[in-house]
Amino acid sequence: MAERKVINKHYPDDFDPSKIPRRRQHKKQMVVRMMLPMTVRCAACGEYIGRGTKFNSRKEDVAGERYLGAVQVFRFYIRCSRCSAEIVFRTDPASAGYALESGATRPSYEPWPAAAEEAGREERGGGDARTALEGRCRDARREMGVDAALEEMRSLKSRRAGVTPEQLLESLRRRGEALAELEEDDEKLISSIAFGNAKERSLRRIDDGDDEDDEEDFFESCLARAAMATTSHQAKKRPPPPPRDAVKSLVVSKKRRPESMDQAAWPPSSGKTTASNGALQVLCCNYDDEE
């Protein structure tokens, strides 16, 4: 039984506690086991979580916020038991309770509304020492703010007390002269840019002949460009010539001569033929006849 309860522990001779690594805490947070101090409704799934439900919540200090400058305010993170949505609430020392920040809402049927708690606190606040202390702290803070404002007003008046009326008028006069000089410089700059002086302005008249020559050159160049564009467009639209057959290109057609010219050129034969006459007749045949 003693070994099971682990009452005694053995530490070796070479044990060095400085070598044990410290546990890392995320953003100065710690996990605490707590019960929910109020009934809430999850804003994600609408699940009601009753008062007294236990959670492993993450606890952290609210940075830069203390009640009456002394009481630390804490923030808690829990998760809905149904949808695991995060619910955030914090302590409220002013009302001695808790206030929701995000993730859930408080139902309206709670038996301890905030107005009733405030009224009861005011009724029993006459003899409560804590309430009297809180009131004195609020009054002290208000008096400190008033004293700071008065001190600032006194310092401002002391600085102004050393200024005489003549010095004030002189400073106003210098300020007016500086503004007048700036306005005069602006007017000079605007007049020189927009209008200019009569001496500085110079006009140049363009001869009419130059205009006509320029117009003619322009029209001629336009016409030449239009002609070139038309020629190139027609050349692109013209279809390529069809391929010609090599055999057809070598065939020569002979025109048919009238019979009268043949009879005049060739007199009737006497019935005797020679080899030379036959060869000539073959050469003079009409190749256009299909027969």
From TrEMBL:
Assembly and oligomerization: Component of the spliceosome. Present in the activated B complex, the catalytically activated B* complex which catalyzes the branching, the catalytic step 1 C complex catalyzing the exon ligation, and the postcatalytic P complex containing the ligated exons (mRNA) and the excised lariat intron.
Record family assignment: Belongs to the CWC16 family. YJU2 subfamily.
Protein name: Splicing factor YJU2
Annotated Basic and acidic residues bias: 118-130
HAMAP family linked to this entry: YJU2
Chief site of localization: nucleus
Record localization: Nucleus
Function: Part of the spliceosome which catalyzes two sequential transesterification reactions, first the excision of the non-coding intron from pre-mRNA and then the ligation of the coding exons to form the mature mRNA. Plays a role in stabilizing the structure of the spliceosome catalytic core and docking of the branch helix into the active site, producing 5'-exon and lariat intron-3'-intermediates.
Residues binding Zn(2+): 42, 45, 80, 83
Pfam families: Saf4_Yju2
An individual GO BP term: generation of catalytic spliceosome for first transesterification step
Span list, region Disordered: 107-130, 229-279
Keywords for the protein's UniProt record, in alphabetical order: Metal-binding, mRNA processing, mRNA splicing, Nucleus, Spliceosome, Zinc
Comp. bias (Polar residues): 270-279
Gene Ontology cellular-component annotations: U2-type catalytic step 1 spliceosome
Sample GO molecular function, one term: metal ion binding
Cited PANTHER family: SPLICING FACTOR YJU2
